[in-house]
Each structure stands twice: as structure tokens, then as C-alpha cells.
Amino acid sequence: MNKLTLIAILLISTIAFSQETKNNNKGTLKFESEIIDYGKIMQNSDGNRVFKLKNIGESPVIISTVKGSCGCTVATKPNEPIMPGETAEIGVKYATNRLGGFSKTITVLSNASKVRHTLRIKGIVVKDSEQIKKTVTSVQ
Length: 140
Known about the structure:
The protein is α+β, with helices and mostly antiparallel strands. The chain has a single domain (about 1-140), classed as Immunoglobulins (Immunoglobulin-like). The chain has two helices and eight strands, in the order αββββββββα. The strands form two sheets. Strands 1-3-6-5 form a four-stranded antiparallel beta sheet, with no helix packed on it. Strand 7 and strand 8 form a beta hairpin.
């Protein structure tokens, strides 16, 4: 019975080590920033921003899905695999026709070592430039 237990332990250890080695050889995404702060922006202004990323792993990364938390946030993904050492961008567009503060998430799914990344955008959409000036003046 001791030999059987020893064999089982060795088998489990071998499987666990091989899984760890496989994960270490995967691609790894590193984002310049996982949060984009729009700050105070004018209503109907340009809501396009970009998350920059790099594959710092050893294998190509394929981003399968990028999805905003609601219909007011649209994200676009790279269509080609991101090779080791290469950079790429995930585009995001917030609908700036909506007044007020916002905080939205973008979920990124890929075959990287970390399968799911959650990115965030935030800011405040104001009606006119006077609201922006008032805020700057009151802070000083």
C-alpha cells in the first residue's frame, strides 16, 4: 500500500508541475493602464480612447472578446494575434451625449495566462465649458 501511495503522489506532482509549466509558457498581457479617466468633458465631444497593451509572455495572445458593461460603451479588439514582444490597442468609445458622471467596465477575454482582464473608464460629461471653468476655479 505504501508503494501505491508513493506512485499516486509522484503522478499528481508530475501533472501539477506540467500544468504550471504550460501556464508559464502562455502569452501575458500587460496594460499601460487599466483605467482611463476622461476627466470633465463636454457633452457630445469625442468619446474615443485607447488602452495600450503588450504581450510580455512567450506565446501569441488572441483576444477573443471585448465587451462594454452597457450599450453606451463600445470597445474594439485587435483582429490579429499579438505576438510575444508586440504591442496592440483596445479602442473604447463612450457615448458623450449623456450628461453626468460615469464609470464603466470593459471585459477582455483571451488565451493569455490571465484569461479575463477588467478595464475601466470614468469621467463626467458636462453641458458646456462654463461648468468646466467653474470646477477649475473652485478647486484653486
